[in-house]
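Journal club prep, notes for RB
We'll compare a predicted complex against what the paper describes. Inputs for the adenosine-5'-triphosphate case:
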Amino acid sequence: MSAVRTEDLTKRYGDVVAVDSLDMEVDDGEVYGFLGPNGAGKTTTIDVLLGYTYPTSGEARVLGEPAGDHRVHERVGVMPEGFGLYPRLTGREHIEFVAESKSVDVNTDAVLERVGLGDAAEGDDPADRRTGGYSKGMKKRLLLATALVGEPDLLVLDEPTSGLDPNGARRIREIVREENDRGATVFFSSHILGQVEAVCDRVGIMQEGELVAVDTVEGLREGVVSVSTLSVLTDGDGGTEAAMGAVGSLEGVSDVSRKGDSVVVSCLRGDTKLNALDAVRQHADVRDFTTQERSLDELFAAYTGEDGDAETKGEA
Ligand SMILES: Nc1ncnc2c1ncn2[C@@H]1O[C@H](COP(=O)(O)OP(=O)(O)OP(=O)(O)O)[C@@H](O)[C@H]1O
């Protein structure tokens, strides 16, 4: 069964098409990274899935029920992007409130401790402070804690790591992994590929309301023309030109150029680099070499059309 499924889902705000005929499927038990630049339609999609807003047309189902159905409320843990906290309530009171609304028992101390809010240092336990005085990072941690209440089958986390320091972001990723090990499906939005890469089974990339790619991070890398660049520094003698000719005829090489005494090779596949290096060595003396993988940022830009040079292969 799919944990999340949309079919031809469209949401318009006046003339703005926030979500455009979206077909998306998140498998039961997977960690799905939902990516896209600002304004791509991620939050709108999540709002439809949670029943916060109605679709203009199309269908969305969550845990087998229509989006927003009260029967799944208790089985879904939500971490919203905006801060939906009550400034006069303490962290502890928030957890108890959510537990009550879901009719579940919760070990409040344990859940707060898990997100790093439960350490009672010198009697000043952040869990007992009103959230109006929380820092941005503390608010994020508390929102995650509220999402964890009741061991939900599906966690929907909207930009959970934005605004967090590296330790906070790492803790969130650890919790995502722990929750997934427990059996939960995690739907995790972000506009930074690097934040979801380490934990996601698959990544879906949104752009202007449409999914432009769905794959593993590895698959996304392979789908982009020129996945890595090999630069081989030769001694500059006559063999360099011959080396360029040999490399150019190799399978998996998309471009060869010369930069000073270096032969620069664009490779379509990981194993092409070694073959290219061997080919250069057969014709020229090699002094050094470097390789460069396409960075996640470049990859993301390639899929969202913000990289003028990049091309992607085939359909998403
Ligand atoms: N309530 C609304 N009224 C009018 N337009 C809206 C509303 N909510 C979203 N939009 C528009 O829909 C589009 C998608 O916005 P959305 O917030 O879903 O994107 P996002 O991918 O979550 O972006 P971000 O990463 O910036 O949060 C944008 O053009 C936005 O201006």
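Talking point for the session: The chain has two domains: 2-216, 225-293.
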